[in-house]
Structures are given as structure tokens and as C-alpha cells.
Amino acid sequence: MRIDIVSVFPEYFDVLNLSLLGKAQDKGLLQVTAHNLRDWTHDVHRTVDDTPVGGGAGMVMKPEIWAQCLDDVLGLPARELENVELTLDDDLPVGQGYGVHATKHGSEVGAAEQSSAIATTQLEHGHKPSQLKQVLIFPNPSAPLFNQQAATELSHAEQLVFGCGRYEGIDARVPRYYAEQGVDVREYSIGDYVLNGGEVAVSAMIEAIVRLIPGFMGNPESIVEESYTGDALLEHRPYTKPTTWRGIAVPQVLISGDHAKVDRYRRDEAIMRTNAIRPDLIEQLDCRRLDKADRKL
Ligand code: SAM
């Protein structure tokens, strides 16, 4: 798999050379390149942001810089599109500048709704192309949540391109534009909180995705029985030796040597923990996968 990351802090991704990710790169399973967005600027200050149209605090990342960079990274032909500055004299209702663009492409949907609908639609309808070639991903706190299902799907892609926002985010027309060009565009949040930039979110997504690539983990079994995998339960708690540590013993059944009982104990614990911590996952559980002993819980 090839991974390209675009950021104003590409050095953030030096951590991806460590541990299993570094080994996967050495083995040729993975090729990671972090690009500096400022390399696509043309001014002396290497400016990547501008004030928000419509007013308000903060700065927004400029679409033309992102587009020049992403055209290169995605391998698309560079396009010089004219920048048009709309004014009130253009007789457009304030705040509907994007509508002009949408109408041109035969759609009445606003850019913001359309771009967030991209990821929502793909996740809600289980969008699963058999072989993903190239996927463009934008971390965004106001997008659908990234989860194990998304990580599994993306682990089959040939190339992932991540665009890390900063400030108030990237101009909303950027994801929309690439989706309209036929690129598979996703936007994901990694949790209900706001980070300063997309770098931490992208690092988390990359780690969750690449550990699912066949050959990445030394022992492939270790990704089969995990939280959010298979039945999508939380995993049972782990214990190692000594069997008693600081007066706390491991559950007796784990040292019984009876594998069926150990399996049963772990499954019961997984179901009970999930019910207590994530009842939403229990509600989504496929009842056909429950056995008689599960149903007694
Ligand atoms: N103004 C935006 C909002 O309130 O939704 C927050 C922008 S945030 C300060 C800047 C960038 O950080 C975002 O464009 C995104 O790339 C990244 N980011 C922040 N929180 C994130 C989260 N929970 N998940 C994914 N990306 C996040």
C-alpha cells in the first residue's frame, strides 16, 4: 500500500518510521510519504490560509493551494481554474456562493451538505468496492466516526491520500471537487472532540488501517480476536504471569487448563463488558451469532 500525507507539519509523521510501521516499510509492504503543503505555495510567506468568507474567527485553508498539491499527489492532470471573487453586486443571495457552483454541476445541494454526505452515504450504505484503488481522506471533527469497519475496508486500498486540516479547516469545496472528479473521497472524525489539526487523527487512522494489511502483524491471529472485530464486541480483559500479583489473582478459570471453559469465560466477559460500556454495540449485535449460553446472560 502507498500512503501519501499532506500537512503543514510533515515532520509530525516521522513517528511512522518506528516500530511495526517502520518494519512494514522496510519489508516493502508499505510506502509512506509526508508532503509539505507549503511546497505548493507561490508567495514569499508560503501562505496556505485566508480569512473566512462570511466573516468570523480564525482562518480557512485555501482551496487553490490544496488543489495544486492534491492534483500532483493523486496523479491528476493539473487544471488552472479561474478564481472568481463574488460580490453582492453579482446579485446573489449572501451565503449562497457555493450554490452557483453546485447548480453548474446540475445539483441543488450545498457544498457542505454534499461533502459530509459523501462519507455518510458510503458508510451508511456499506459502500464496499471489491478493490479500492485510490482513496482521498480528510479528517474532520464534524464527519462520521472512523471505526474498525472503515479501517478494514481501507486496508484493501492501493493508495491512501490524507489531507490534514489546520486552523478552521480546509475550504469545503476541496473534498466536493475531488468527489465530483470521480475520486473516492471520505471524511472521518476520530472522536467527539476538536484537535488543533488533522495530524494526530491521520496517525491514528493509519495505524488502525495498516495493522490489518496481510503480513503486517507477526501473528495474524492477534487481529482476529479483537475489540470491534467479528461480533464487534469489546474484548475480554488480558492477564499474564505471575498468576497472583500484589495480592490480586487472575480469574481461576484461566489456570484451569480447560480450553472450552476459558473460551466460555472470555466470551461471557466480552458480552458483559460490552453491555456495560457500549450498550449500543449490543443493540447492533446479530442475534443469529448468539449461542444458547450467550442468551442466558
Ligand atoms: N472548526 C472546526 C470545527 O469546529 O469542526 C475544527 C477545525 S480543527 C481546529 C482543525 C483540523 O483538525 C480539522 O480540519 C481536522 O483536520 C482536524 N481535526 C480536529 N478534530 C478532529 C477530530 N475529532 N477528528 C478528525 N479530525 C479532526
From TrEMBL:
It catalyses: guanosine(37) in tRNA + S-adenosyl-L-methionine = N(1)-methylguanosine(37) in tRNA + S-adenosyl-L-homocysteine + H(+). Its main location: cytoplasm. It comes from the Bacteria. One of its GO terms (biological process) is tRNA N1-guanine methylation. One of its GO terms (molecular function) is tRNA (guanine(37)-N1)-methyltransferase activity. Its EC number is 2.1.1.228. Residues 1-74, 129-284 form the tRNA methyltransferase TRMD/TRM10-type domain. GO terms for cellular component: cytosol. S-adenosyl-L-methionine binds at residues 165, 190-195. It is found in: Cytoplasm. Keywords: Cytoplasm, Methyltransferase, S-adenosyl-L-methionine, Transferase, tRNA processing. Specifically methylates guanosine-37 in various tRNAs. Homodimer. Belongs to the RNA methyltransferase TrmD family. PANTHER family: TRNA (GUANINE-N(1)-)-METHYLTRANSFERASE. This is tRNA (guanine-N(1)-)-methyltransferase.
